Amino acid sequence: MCFGIRNEVKMLTIFLRCYPNIETLHVQTEEAPEFTTNDVNTKFWQETGPIESVKSHLKTMVLHVFQGEQSKLPFLMFISENAGVLEQMVIKLKAGRLPAPALRAVADKRKDLLSAKWSSGAVGAAICCSGLRGSCTA
Fold first, then answer.
1. What is the pLDDT of residues 2-53, one digit of tens each?
2. 0.85 exceeded by the pTM?
3. With the CA atoms of 8, 132, 137 and 59 taken in that order, what torsion angle do they form, in degrees rounded to the nearest 10?
4. Among 28, 51, 63, 65, which is most exposed with the fewest C-beta within 10 angstroms?
């Protein structure tokens, strides 16, 4: 899915509401086309309201193909702040070597996530950016 396209993100929220007992969520992402407005921000996720599967059942969330894009951070923050039983958040970087600016963006987003108020109390919640040595943080 592409976080820069509002209709695709809305479909994700519909999916999560249709399957209220999801314990593991894998999200395969794509780069946003240049024509996107990227209006899926923190406000969008705040207006989404509570989602039962995220709030009460989601234990593991895996985001595939992360490159430090700003459009994905509000979703990751929404999960971290609303998933009451989240045990692990795994962020998998895009295969191959990322340019230095993208690596800095990934590191910055990771810091933002670590400073979030984790609904699960952050006990046992880990952020693992596969592809970065020593990057698992509990």
1. 888 889 999 999 999 999 999 999 999 887 666 555 677 889 999 999 999 9
2. no
3. 40
4. 28
Residue 20 has phi, psi (to 5 degrees) of: -75, -10
Specify whether the CB–CB gap between 28 and 64 falls below 8 A.
yes
Question: In the numeric block, which tokens belong to residue 46?
Answer: 């705040």
Tell how strand 60-66 and strand 88-93 pair up. Answer: parallel
The answer for residues whose C-beta is within 8 angstroms of residue 71's C-beta and 6 or more apart is 3, 4, 32, 38, 40
